Predict the 3D structure of the following.
Amino acid sequence: MHTQTIAISALRSHLLAYLKQAEHGKELVITSKGHTIARILPPKDTTKDAKNALSKLRTKSKIGDVISPIDTEWEANN
């Protein structure tokens, strides 16, 4: 993620341009008199995050038949 530090006065003057940058993946650190007062983060791509999580899970999981009955009798069935 790319980060850009900007003064609050510049943010006020060019708000739409900075928000466009955040929309395209840039993190904005807002400062006042040299001190960080806020951060504007890009939106999360929840679909991409979910696909990445499933890909990681796929490497650790064994996919098989989970519907067919098994030969072992369960105590809950009695």
